[in-house]
Amino acid sequence: MEPVWKIKIRSNDKKALVDYIFDERLDTSCGGPKKIEDGIFEIEAFVKDSKKKLMTSRKTKSIDIEIYDDVIASATKKQNDISKQNRYSKANSKATAEYAEVKGFGVKE
């Protein structure tokens, strides 16, 4: 699977940042650029490896791009932390037993 990189794009010119995002057709989080400090605007985006290389080669004075990590590799690594057991299989609570007996569509007859 091709890597997908999390990047942060910053600029002190909000219009230039928004134009850059639309020109590059970036997959960004909801909400648009946020003002972080001293008039700097920032937005997170997710790009494939080929797009990351193009973007880093086309940096401008007003646009700063910071590469964070490969989210695919990070998610794959985190899968090892997730248990493979069904944590509900040994549930002996009274509520679990009651719900096991429920049948039908929940419509009063």
Task: Give a written overview of the molecule.
32% of the residues lie in helices and 28% in strands. It has 109 residues and is α+β, with helices and mostly antiparallel strands. The protein has a domain at 4-79: Alpha-Beta Plaits. Strand 3 and strand 4 form a beta hairpin.
Low-confidence segments: none
CATH top level of the domain at 4-79 is: Alpha Beta
Strand content: 25-35%
What's the mean pLDDT score? 79
* The CATH homology group name of the domain at 4-79: ACT domain
Which keywords apply here?
five-stranded antiparallel sheet; 32% helix; elongated; alpha+beta; 109 residues; 4 helices; Alpha-Beta Plaits
What does this entry show, briefly?
By secondary structure, this protein is of the alpha+beta class. The chain has a domain at 4-79: ACT domain (Alpha-Beta Plaits, 2-Layer Sandwich), CATH 3.30.70.
Fold topology:
Blueprint: E1 4-11, H1 14-24, E2 27-28, E3 34-37, E4 40-48, H2 49-57, E5 64-70, H3 71-78, H4 94-100
Antiparallel strand pairs: 1-4, 1-5, 2-4, 3-4
